[in-house]
């Protein structure tokens, strides 16, 4: 991949990450032991139950939260707790209300000290490609939730870092726009070959977009299964009609359903201990 010059070290690697939150008397073990790898140029997805710690994991990768144990290794170097090394699209668009749309898109480039004019030109070109032409000088509050998500996505896409972490980037889009964005994302990815770690609740989306899928358990969270997606690139829509697509979809669905049943049985109290008991 990437012209064959990729060395073993060219990857983002999470080694045995664990994260426990402690608020007052409550101890919440969220990540138990997560190890995964995103090789340079790969598209890797995570699917897992709500509350399993996917966003927390991204905060750990981005250096916003310290893990309780384990390491984040980037291109062979331990970068645990270091900020600014990944391009990150948070689950909520988090646009800055006082900056125009184009100034929001170029934010990460500005922070990295890249030339403004070039960044603005890129932002305008991409805004046009995602149907936001004419909004360059508008402010975020005039945009719908889905439009804001596209802006946040472009901000991550135009960030200069190699590894992109996208936390449910298409979560609040209607089905058709979402489908268009998926096709559009595969085509950009296939030409730009960015390294992507992607969180989604849609099994189909994960199968259509990814090279590898990690299925997460309930918290305290482990990797239930690593799935290698067998479809070739460039990826055509027809893969969604292939029997193996449906088999993999069923397999992932069953894994997640079992997790849901397990969590219903344990009523969520197994790993959470409240010592404060104020009521
Ligand atoms: N700062 C914090 N303090 C205490 N608990 C936290 C903190 N941040 C997250 N948690 C807890 O960690 C767990 C995982 O949350 P997280 O948002 O990472 O889940 P998620 O997998 O992204 O869920 P979703 O799919 O709904 O977005 C939740 O139980 C949440 O309450
Ligand atoms: Mg989340």
Give a written overview of the molecule.
Strand 7 (163-167), helix 6 and strand 8 form a beta-alpha-beta unit. The protein is an alpha/beta fold. Strands 1, 2, 3, 4, 5, 6, 7, 8, 9, 10 and 11 form an eleven-stranded mixed sheet that branches. It has a domain at 10-85 and 163-173 and 194-268: Rossmann fold (3-Layer(aba) Sandwich), CATH 3.40.50. Mean pLDDT is 89; it is low at 268-279. 34% of the residues lie in helices and 25% in strands. Bound molecules: adenosine-5'-triphosphate and magnesium ion. Adenosine-5'-triphosphate binds at residues 21, 23, 28, 30, 50-56, 91. Residues 21, 23, 28, 30, 50-56, 91 line the site of adenosine-5'-triphosphate.
């Amino acid at each position: 991949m990437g012209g064959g010059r990729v060395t073993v070290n060219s990857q983002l690697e999470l080694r045995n990450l664990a994260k426990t939150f402690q608020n007052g008397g409550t101890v919440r073990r969220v990540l138990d032991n997560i190890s995964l790898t995103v090789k340079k140029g790969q598209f890797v997805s995570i699917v897992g139950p709500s509350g399993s710690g996917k966003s927390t994991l991204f905060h750990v990768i981005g250096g916003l939260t310290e893990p309780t144990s384990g390491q984040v290794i980037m291109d062979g170097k331990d970068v645990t707790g270091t900020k600014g090394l990944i391009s990150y699209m948070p689950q909520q668009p988090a646009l800055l209300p006082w900056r125009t749309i184009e100034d929001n898109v170029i934010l990460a480039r500005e922070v990295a000290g890249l030339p403004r004019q070039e960044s603005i030109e890129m932002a305008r070109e991409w805004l046009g490609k995602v149907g936001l032409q004419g909004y360059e000088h508008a402010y975020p509050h005039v945009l719908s939730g889905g439009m804001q998500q596209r802006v946040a996505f472009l901000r991550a896409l135009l960030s200069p870092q190699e590894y992109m972490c996208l936390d449910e980037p298409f979560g609040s889009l209607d089905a058709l726009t979402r489908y268009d964005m998926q096709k559009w994302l595969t085509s950009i990815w296939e030409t730009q070959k960015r390294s992507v770690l992607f969180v989604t609740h849609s099994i189909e989306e994960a199968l259509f977009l990814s090279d590898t899928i990690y299925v997460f358990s309930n918290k305290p969270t482990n990797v239930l299964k690593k799935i290698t997606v067998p479809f070739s690139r460039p990826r055509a829509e027809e893969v969604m009609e292939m029997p193996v697509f449906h088999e993999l979809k069923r397999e992932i669905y069953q894994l997640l359903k079992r997790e849901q049943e397990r969590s219903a049985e344990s009523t969520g109290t197994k790993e959470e201990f409240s010592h404060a008991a104020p009521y």
